[in-house]
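Researcher: I need the complex structure. Ligand is zinc ion. Inputs:
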Amino acid sequence: MSTGIRVTVWNEGVHEKELPRCKELYPDGMGRAIGRYLEKQPGIASVRCVELDDPDQGLSDDILDTTDVMTWWGHCAHDRVTDENAAKVQDRVLNGMGLVVLHSGHMSKPFRRLMGTGCMLKWREWRGVGERERLWVVDPAHPIADGIPEYIEIPHAEMYGEHFDVPQPDQLVFISWFQGGDVFRSGCCWHRGLGKVFYFRPGHETFPIYHQEEVLEVIRNGAKWAAPTRVRGGVQRGNIEPPLEQIS
Ligand code: ZN
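Model: Output:
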């Protein structure tokens, strides 16, 4: 049995085909930029990059069966992900698969199903150049903050602001400050069933954010945190008899 985690990087892959700036920044796609970094990291056994236009939308049972953690980037084609596939991803998370949702993935079908709320937020892409963002670590003891500086500065970012319509996170790791005065809960953790979900805000199709080392480090830490916790024996769900202790 492999000792590391098996990561599947799911990328919508639409902007890369349509936006010249996106193609220039990510010639082989944002997913591969993330995947290339992750595959070199200790503790990660394998990385597979899939896209919406792949067979079965990159979400076949075969792929899901061999995924410990999935990262998800989507924006303009959330609706093209079938309800059946979104339900499959949700079900996998409830049964232990980790999910790291990036940037505009906040409106993806799997994330919204897992949150149960609208997941909408405020945004601003200031005059095409964006604005400065600082992501402050607000839980330095959290495993996702391991090795991360006190704050990460992104020179040009699309602003996401509160209110972010998600359930209160179980753990909050980052809060962003933006040059325009807004703040945002940028690194949020939830437990869902047997699985874990990490939402991480940075990333936009026309900014080189997935080439920034600290951002990739957080994605790696998020994938490691979200990896399944394997229970040793026992019955997790369902009828159990006899009881552990004598009842009568
Ligand atoms: Zn964006």
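Model: Summary of the prediction. The mean pLDDT is 96.
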